[in-house]
Amino acid sequence: MPITSLTVRALDGLDITRKEGERAKNMFALGLLSWMFHRPVEPTYEYLNKKFAKKPVIAEANTLAFKAGYNYGETTEAFAVSYEVAPAHLPEGRYRSLSGNVATSYGLLAGARRAGLQLFVGSYPITPATDILHDLVRHKRFGVKTFQAEDEIAGVCSAIGASFGGAMAVTTTSGPGLSLKTEALGLAVSLEVPLVVVDVQRGGPSTGLPTKTEQADLMQAMFGRNGEAPLAVVAARSPSDCFDTAIEAVRIATAYRTPVIMLTDGNLANGSEPWRVPSLDELPDLTVHFATEPNGENGEFLPYLRDPETLARPWAIPGTPGLEHRIGGLEKLDKVGTVSHDPDNHDFMVRTRAAKIAAIERTIPPLDVDDPPGPDGSTANTLILGWGSSYGPVAAAVRRMRRMGVQVARAHLRHLNPMPSNTGDVLRRYDKVIVPELNLGQLAQLLRARYLVDVVSYTQVRGLPFRADELVDTLKEVISR
Amino acid sequence: MNGNGTARNGFALTAKDLKTDQEVRWCPGCGDYAILAAVQSFLPELGIPKENLAFVSGIGCSSRFPYYMDTYGIHGIHGRAPAIATGLAVSRPDLSVWVVTGDGDALSIGGNHLIHTLRRNVNLKILLFNNRIYGLTKGQYSPTSEFGKITKTSPLGSVDYPFNPLSLAIGAGATFAARTLATDRAHMTQVLRAAAAHQGTAFIEIYQNCEIFNDRAFELFTKPDTRAEWTIPLEAGQPLRFGPDRRSAVVRRTDGLGLEVRRDGADDADVVVHDPGAEDPTYAFALSRIGDDDARHTPIGVFRDVTMPTFEELMTEQVATPEEASHADLEKLFAGNDSWYVGANGLHNTDG
Fold first, then answer.
1. Band of residue B350 on the pLDDT scale cut at 50, 70, 90
2. B108 to chain A, minimum CA–CA distance in Å?
């Protein structure tokens, strides 16, 4: 379809150059789409008049181009079909449109506010994560301190320093940047300080496909450090879910004094969807209590004396008299925190750090399975288990299967480390478990190793999200085996 | 809260209050001991409660320093101390933050963080212990080792040209840059005092002898019979005359570019008068290069000390205080200016 020449012709007679006219071709396309999907046109006119209030002729050109596109669809019958999208049924509340990266930013703001901490962000620009930093720098009235570091390493290291000082410290990045932060994350594991690392995954390895989406950093998030260096890993499932996931990351980081890697991806980061605007009161209370008094029997301060429930150590910030202490990347003596090379102590500390991460399991909800019984009360034999941004396509595929009368169960993991306590039980309940991922089977490998369940791995690495129809074909194929 | 400079028992803070129960693990004869003692002795005079002091280090012999200071401290990872300290200083401008690093830590693996910290003028005091060797890994050439140096990794002589740490720091925009000697307690204390008084990044190179892997590296500047001849003491407002009989002097080069040493009888009018406050860093830089024609001539003291707003000050001006921030309306931000209401029937009602 010659959109450019159609647009230019529609603007004949306006006092604009040909080039200015050509620039309005996006509005021709939007007009055509608005016709095709029966969308209201008034909001677009209002938007254009507002946007180009100071340049009325440009506003007029864009409006005319939009109308030309709309009318083209209506009159030429070039398209055999048009679609009507019924209004979505949503819970009551105020809504707005929100992209994944802005949702992440808002989640971090909300988490820090609910924790009663200043938000510190040390980051280095990297696609597709930079928009989080772009958004956070606009919120200095909320006390956010943003530091555009000289490199990815300085980004995470500055965050570690800020965390030691008592801030809710964050660093945002994408895959190659996470690689660079590796050593510092090991330090954060050893220091046991709260830290949120947002990894907006993109195609890899190396520079890979910076603007395309992938889920191939899961193993890097899980294991990409020297030594036994477990940390918590959570993943957002949709653009607006980045908000809740960021708050959950803040919760885990502060409650367990641990780095948390929050995985999103290019698809979530740049995708938008309606988001019900929450009130602050309905968000979890994450109030942090800094240590203020010595905790040892002899009036000394023991920086690695742990909370018996969470195994978290005290967070004693500089400026607190009597709690002066030194921590570092060298192995520390249990409770005391001084350097120790004792074999048994090292064994104990390695296991204790792992046990602390495992203990997070007690505060995360069980894996919820969507498996409505059929008319005869039967349930599905096949489970499709997703993580991260496959949530939308998997949900659509399962809906289609059910419309075809095929029972399929569905579950989705937000917590990748630790996983919900019932994960193994859920996997074993089904004859077949399909795990679709935009990598070569990283979650599948984790599940097989941990639960000895031979899941079916379905993978794609094309830089694109899954399509529901592809997942339907896969489900059919696996069920028929 | 304690009164300024007092220990918790109510008496004034002393060097002893800053010592920890950790056994100091440097080799016998290491120059680091003298630096530790000088820092512990001089710090109490600043009147800063010890809970407001933080020492941050990287990796290397020097970087064990925080373990021996009874203050807050982080023993970080190799080369990253300036970055860790920047995060701490930016989030906590109320603290006095000190970075302890070495020639390998600061100038090799951590070179990037060092130069960016200097250009930003973060309020950190950076003590670079320069022994011109990798000591912790047992003797490889470092970025300050002299050309041709024979070490375990350069058996035929190193083919690396060394960094001049002062030139690097001044070139990176250091607002305070100084050099001192671990063997000269009085001079070291004087330089530490000046650094502590400086608002912004204070960079101090400390010549520190590694007796095991690079012994006598700075002997020329420490032995009584050669010291006067080769060191150029820097004192603000004083003519740069030096040498056993003060016959040597720093003068402007006849080609107008930089400075040079004149060994015999420079006229008073030609001798440069030291001005660490010179706005233009060209002078301090030229001073740092003075030994280039004869690497043995070495200025000792404060090269540069100028005042510029610190990174934390500039950032704090832009950001709301925690008190203001706690009242800022987050819900309003979340709602944005383009929202709509969905009623109890679950359907979209446009109300702007």
1. low
2. 15
